[in-house]
Amino acid sequence: MFKVDLHIHTTNSDGLTKPEDVVKIAKRVGLSGVAVTDHNFLTNIKKDESILVILGEEITTKEGHILALGISEEIERDLPLEETIDRIKEQGALAVAAHPFDKFRKGVGDLVYKVDFDAIETLNARSIFPTFNSRARKAALKLKIPQVGGSDAHADDQIGRAYTIITKEVSNEDDVLKMIKKGYCYAEGKSIGVIKYLKEKTIKFLNSF
């Protein structure tokens, strides 16, 4: 079983986890792979033979946040949504709707029905209200589009709380991206919960002084 957390943030954007610690934590929690998706920044982390590392970015578009998985060059922020998706696909990468119906975190909402996403994040561990993820699942089922999961981790103890299971044998980044696009995947995991969410926010607040 190949488990990959497709949505992780580090100190290169608004996370509390150091980039050099991501692989170590991923191994500890039993993941097979990770995608580091810092906000509007392409983070390169040291790779490890035992953990697959996918280069990614969570991009702020004019209409909301999307994940770019498998990019090789950073994509600028604040472009129109469809132009951003085009730029992602020009790199042979996947465009994923991140927490599309999370009202607190700039999801693209009903635009998932109007633009050409490769997948929808239907299990985001930081969407602490169940309706946010359930609406994403309903959209994915209606559109017959692949479903993926990610922790959206902003702290060490959040990594791996939600993840994507790849149901076919894979050995590299290209394999994983192809299997996701073909729908050989599903989302698993659970919410980080209110306590972890508030703990992270408190640490960020204290570190701001």
Structure description:
This protein has 209 residues and is an alpha/beta fold. It has a single domain (2-207), classed as TIM Barrel. Helix content is 27%, strand content 24%. The protein contains five helices and nine strands, in the order E-H-E-E-E-H-E-E-H-E-E-H-E-H. It has a nine-stranded mixed sheet with strand order 7-6-5-4-3-2-1-8-9, with helices on both faces. Strand 3 and strand 4 (64-69) form a beta hairpin. It is globular and about 40 Å long. The N and C termini lie far apart (43 Å). The mean pLDDT is 95.
With strands numbered from the N-terminus, the spatial order across the biggest sheet is 7-6-5-4-3-2-1-8-9
Terminal CA distance: 43 Å
Q: What's the CATH architecture?
A: Alpha-Beta Barrel
**Helix amount:** 25-40%
The CATH superfamily name is Metal-dependent hydrolases
Shape: globular
> Gyration radius, to the nearest Å?
15 Å
- What is the N-to-C succession of helices and strands? EHEEEHEEHEEHEH
Strand content: 15-25%
The pLDDT mean sits at 95
What low-confidence regions span 5 or more consecutive residues with pLDDT below 50? Answer: none
Would you count the extended β strands for me? 9
